[in-house]
Specification:
138 residues; alpha/beta; four-stranded mixed β-sheet; globular
C-alpha cells in the first residue's frame, strides 16, 4: 500500500474563529461546508491542507501549561493534536506569529535532533511544531 496523501482533521470550537487564527499565521481558507459552517479547510502553499471540524472528529482542549518542552513545559496537558509544520525560516515565522499575537509556547531553538523549531498553540489546544532541519555542526 502506498498512501497518496494525508490530511489531518482538527476538532475546533468554532470554524470562523479558527480560520481567522490560521489567516494570522499566513494560511488561507480553502472552503467551508454547512450553514452555518461546521466543516472546512485551510491551506498553505500547494500541498499543506488541514480539515477543521466543529465539535467533532478528535479531541481538543487547552491545558493550563504556558510552555511546551522547556524546563517547566508540559507535553501532556493539552488534549489537542500535535503536528509538525516545515517552513523555510523558523525565526521569520516566529516574528510573524508574535506580531500577530499568536501564542508561542516554545521559542526558536536548535534541537539536538538537528531541527530548529518553535511551538505555536491554537486556542483549542492544538500544538504546531514549526521547524526546519539543519546540518549538524562538526
Amino acid at each position: 500500500m502506498e498512501a497518496k496523501g494525508l490530511t489531518p482533521i482538527l476538532n475546533v470550537a468554532d470554524i470562523a474563529s479558527t480560520v481567522a487564527w490560521f489567516e494570522k499565521w499566513g494560511w488561507k481558507k480553502l472552503w467551508d461546508w454547512g450553514t452555518p459552517p461546521t466543516f472546512g479547510a485551510v491551506g498553505s502553499g500547494k500541498e499543506a491542507c488541514i480539515f477543521l471540524c466543529q465539535g467533532a472528529q478528535g479531541g481538543r482542549g487547552r491545558g493550563a501549561n504556558t510552555t511546551t518542552f522547556q524546563r517547566h513545559g508540559d507535553e501532556e496537558c493539552d488534549k489537542g493534536v500535535w503536528m509538525s509544520v516545515w517552513v523555510d525560516d523558523v525565526d521569520e515565522m516566529h516574528k510573524q506569529c508574535v506580531a500577530a499575537g499568536l501564542e508561542v509556547t516554545f521559542p526558536p531553538t536548535d534541537m539536538p535532533w538537528n531541527v530548529r523549531e518553535m511551538h505555536l498553540r491554537h486556542p483549542d489546544g492544538h500544538v504546531f511544531r514549526v521547524g526546519r532541519g539543519f546540518e549538524p555542526k562538526r
